[in-house]
């Protein structure tokens, strides 16, 4: 199984998650969606898996810079369009395990999900 981590290189949470994976000898591929992009099909799959509300990082600088109108009148289609246009609004990291995804980084969740994959 190939594990793929999605995010952006300079994110502190991504750095912590990468250190955790590497220190636990978990092989993974890193996909920087600032460089490699992110397709609508993949975002739709994630949204169907965990919900757009989980994926949208309302604490991100990019989200906070939106107009009040954009922030307050969100629905699934608008949120997906915003995340595709500005992927930094996606909560990081997204860890694709093949059969499921994990959003965000919590060491105990990573341990439970990938600890036995080594």
What can be said about the biggest beta sheet? Answer: 4 strands, mixed
Q: Could you name the CATH class?
A: Alpha Beta
**Biggest sheet, strands in spatial order?**
2-1-3-4
How widely separated are the two ends?
10 Å
CATH topology type:
Glutaredoxin
Fraction of residues in helices?
40-55%
Structural class: alpha+beta
The CATH homologous superfamily is named Glutaredoxin
- CATH A-level architecture: 3-Layer(aba) Sandwich
**Integer-rounded radius of gyration:** 14 Å
**Poorly predicted runs:** none
User: How many structural domains in the coordinates?
Assistant: 1
Shape: globular
Mean pLDDT rating = 92
The tally of beta strands, per DSSP, is 4
Q: β content, as a range?
A: 5-15%
Number of helices: 7
Which sequence of SSEs, written as H and E, runs from N to C? EHEHHHHHEEH
Secondary structure layout plus pairing:
Elements: E1 4-7, H1 12-23, E2 29-32, H2 40-50, H3 52-55, H4 61-64, H5 68-72, H6 76-85, E3 94-96, E4 101-103, H7 107-114
Parallel strand pairs: 1-2
Antiparallel strand pairs: 1-3, 3-4
Would you kindly provide a written description of the structure presented here, covering whatever features stand out?
With 118 residues, this protein is of the alpha+beta class. It has one domain (4-115): 3-Layer(aba) Sandwich (Glutaredoxin). The protein has 7 helices and 4 strands. It has helices at 12-23, 40-50, 52-55, 61-64, 68-72, 76-85, 107-114; strands spanning 4-7, 29-32, 94-96, 101-103.
